[in-house]
User: Fold these one by one.
Assistant:
Number 1:
Amino acid sequence: MKRTLGVCYYPEHWPEEIWAQDAARMADLGLTWVRIGEFAWKRMEPAPGQYDWGWLDRAIDVLGAAGLRVVLGTPTATPPAWVVAKHPDMLAVDADGRPRGYGSRRHYCFSHAGYLDECRRIVRAMAERYGANPHVAAWQTDNEYGCHDTIFSYSDAARGAFRQWLRARFPGQGNDGDIGALNAAWGNVFWSMDYDDFDQIGLPNLTVTEPNPAHVHAFRRFSSDQVVQFNRAQVEIIRAQSDAPIAHNYMGRITDFDHFQMGADLDIASWDSYPLGFLEDRVGATPEHQRAYARQGDPDFQAFHHDLYRAVGKDGRWWIMEQQPGPVNWAPYNPAPLPGMVRLWTWEAFAHGAEAVCYFRWRQAPFAQEQMHAGLLRPDSVAAEAFAEAETVAAELKASPDVTPVQAPVAILFDYDADAAWAVQPHGVGLSYFGLVFDWYKACRKLGLSVDILSADCRRFDGYALVLAPGMMHMPDDLKTALSAAPGQVIVGPRTGARDADFNIPTPLPPAWPGSDLTVSRVQSMRPDMPVALEPVGRIHSYLEQVEGGGTTLMQTTDGTPVAVACGDRATYMAAWGDDVAHMALIRALVPDLAVAYMPEGVRRRETGDDMFWFNYSTQAVEIDGQTLDPAGVLRLPK
Ligand code: GAL
């Protein structure tokens, strides 16, 4: 398969006279894909039931005639004012009970039945009109579910739907649920919180002090299900009219709904990669790290998501739907990428298996919210800096062999439900499941190891020398059994199996690992500025469990408290959140045979079937196998 490039385009932003020129220029640049439509509801349906498809017909024709393939987005992230006027209670409500206002985007509640009907209608109209259009070669549903903190809504519609969801989860006689079962599962005897009826159950906001964690976790699971269902409604309608693959564009570190569940309904997982924007507000990096990588982005954050979305996509199919091309408008600081970084980011995505990388956006907008966001072109249509880098990649793709996939030696499990559980009960400021998993991922990358991310539904681990499953607060027994049978080494903990499916501490106490008496007897979280030193190396910050039993101790605190302890045949329980040094040392100790390379600071590599790709995120040139790798450089060395 040939990897391809594309771009996001908004024909409705530009005079129709320039569309053909734009299209010809995109094709000349070597682009294959053009994504359009995802915010254009008002142009498609200016008033209720009055459709205006003429402009979109012509835009698709013009783009298609230039040889481009269209990704058509459904416009449900931006309901026009008339939709809101018709359904004033469709606005999502924030945790403080305030409706989220009109005037930007994503102003809807996933549980509002009237809004869902409007979405079905506009999507059906689009699918009927364009489902068989030969230029429409893929679809995108909505835009970035979860962006701007929009998964959780505390509206009346959400409350009603939550009660129904709970009735189904605790089934009873007839249509009503078993309220006694819910009370028992949640431990509502605590603080006299027992309900007499499902209709007494509210949403877990505006309580005097913290609500019951079981209640909050249930609300998070419910909210995730609502998003998956909302998306599924669109997918079913599109599929009835079109054979083209369907994608959604997910985000970086937005974990408020289960992407694996949504991914099962879609053909392609895509995500929107903004390496410099993320460095400031999502990576969780120290100010020093932010300064060192201000113009390159974090060396691991994009790669993590590439690997995650490869797992979310059906048969590993994934794309970058939006690639940062220059300074953006929305991060705390918005520097320009170092020359060469747009090319590096693009090649790194391909090395991780991306089928396509699309730049956001074709031309910088001179109006409205994103005036300060670069595109491939300036507002005056002169090429911006990224244009030439995209051109270089297009030429390189043409001239080089395809990137071939291969199974990585290391797997990391990622579980959205565990992420929700940590969010409900972090036990310390800033502690998150994502942060823990990402720390392990970084340790692997710093050792030069390629990683496959797997869903927590995975039960087969053949071919992996090492499987990491840190922090899964609820781990079903059959997953413990499958991990115990894995042929390679396994690392679990901290917090593995710390809660049952209803958010209670199970007995026997965690981790209840097959064939091991290891028991977590006490749990503490610590100030991050009071790290605890480890032997042989490294430090713990944030989180430390006290364990009893288990096998050999591989790592301990300097006062002799066991930290990494063998449990079962090939599993190691890590009873703490270590730093990179500790994590790297444990990996080295467990899988000494994995060819761990010397990795210069800021340099990363990714192994494919035929090549080893090297990427230099640092500002210093380095030598790799006798070749110079410049800052922002990419080396592709045949194996
Ligand atoms: C994305 C979004 C785009 C655009 C872009 C700007 O989150 O999907 O529509 O707003 O950010 O960086």
Number 2:
Amino acid sequence: MLVSVALVATALVAVGLALVGRSTETLPVADGAGPAPAPSAGGTPERQTLRDLMPPGVRIGTAADGRGLSLDPAYRALLGTEFNAMTAENAMKWRSLEPLPGVHAWAGADQLVEFAQQHGQAVYGHTLVWHSDVPKWVSPDWPAERVRAVLQEHVTTVVSRYRGRVWAWDVVNEVLDEDGRLRDTIWLRKLGPGYVADAFRWAHAADPAARLFINDYGVEGRTRKADALLRLVRDLRRAGVPVDGVGFQSHLRWDQSPRDLVGNLRRFAQLGVSVAITELDVRVALPASPQKLEQQAVLYRRVLRACLAVPACVSFTVWGFTDARSWIPGYHRGYGAACLFDSGLAPKPAHNALMDELRRQASRGGVVPGPD
Ligand code: XIL
């Protein structure tokens, strides 16, 4: 009996996953579990969260970190209540999953997926093929067939394991260089440009219901790189490659806004794909000031508005939600304070701006026209 209930639930989720446009899409969760009620701390009245206000069909996600999850109850509480989707910040990357050839370490990724299931969250899988995260044991000196075999094995094994529990995968990440050419990586050198299509086909074979994304940075506005990505996606789809969506990482600076965000998202949508904001953060030059945090809030709001203005935009994900655990200070020297919550987990102006935007749109019954 339990088994058949689980099967029916899985089938329902699969149906939800197969639907494309957000107007018709039911929000799939990791395992068909209903949203968990928001825990109220110490009997205080429950406050509204981003998740409560998000319009149906658009997910609000965050990258999640296994350490925060294991060690910090306040982090867990916010993760579970503010978001209805999560991306593993690092736990599903190849080096984390397969430290030695054929030896898998699933615990970190499994922990995140289980948390998501318990909290009614969709899991966005990140990422199968990324030049920055190739295990050391994969050698560029191997013959091409061997390189191809390990890549195929990796994609197939990981996607199969999470089949039905991951709603979308970043199949390839950052395959373009700054000029819009295919990036010079071990995959391009050994396998030629066809590796991109192959990766999508392998992923599709392993989980036909998963939505398959190509993800990149520097493509949020109308840049040369965005033009090149548009051509790549168009060519892949014309060739019948199962590319379902384009992810716009959106690692932004507080003082620079991408050019024509809405128009750019729309031209991708016109190819027939979903679009998603996949890794939004807005770093500021340190020290942060109230004025910089206000400007940051404007940018967060602008990106949310852009997503909500484009019906093909299926999710809006921030790259971590607290300054206490953000990757920014470690990777962008002199910058920080990039997230929605400060390092003490208090909401910042950016969080208030998103809440305000969602309330306004709800009260006007939909998308507010106007510049992005
Ligand atoms: C980053 C993580 O946040 C760091 O913790 C890790 O050390 C390196 O990767 N683009 C991506 C993400 O697609 O996977 C990166 O995440 C940030 C840039």
Number 3:
Amino acid sequence: MTDGTSGRFITLEGGEGAGKSTQIARLRTWLEGRGKTVVATREPGGSSGAEMIRKLLVEGPAERWDGVTEALLHFAARRDHLRTTVWPALKLGAWVISDRFADSTRAYQGYGHGLDHATIEQLYDVAVGDFRPDLTLILDLPIDVGLARAAARRGAETRYENLPIEFHQRVKAGFLEIAKREPGRCVVIDAGQDIDTLAATIARTVGDRLGV
Ligand code: TMP
């Protein structure tokens, strides 16, 4: 994905209520203003099969799945999303922005639920192979602020929010660890900035990192 003629794959990650969807809409407009064709998508979901799996994951009681089952469901949804939506769009030269990707599995099922990292990477190899995002933006926000924002807008999709605060603390720490391990791919961004400042920070980061 780096020869300058094909598309780019950008992922936005972070805990609950970090403002990813608003920022994806802003980034899309910014990229389109620079002549890019943009596909905005999300996980779990982003294809009709993966949206069906999403319902199983985000609704119902918190103890519905154990960590392994949950990771399997996320990777099943991810593979369908990649095959149906992401890879074809990249092939046509689009810039694909995904609201969450595999770092969410590492942070939520790995750091949050304690599934071991080697298992997650094995599942990654099976479902995704060598493919990686060109850039991952991790929107970092204090947990209480994020959960309050998420609670204000959420309908039936409460399964993850209902997990205890310690779970969300592990998820936040996990995202920061991932960023530290892969500084070439990941950038941590303070999501506590106001919407316009945050959008400008994100645009600058994408511009610098991917040469837009
Ligand atoms: P959303 O609220 O950003 O749409 O994401 C739905 C929930 O799914 C969110 O609480 C995070 C969770 N999730 C995982 O636990 N693992 C994953 O791999 C992904 C993509 C999402």
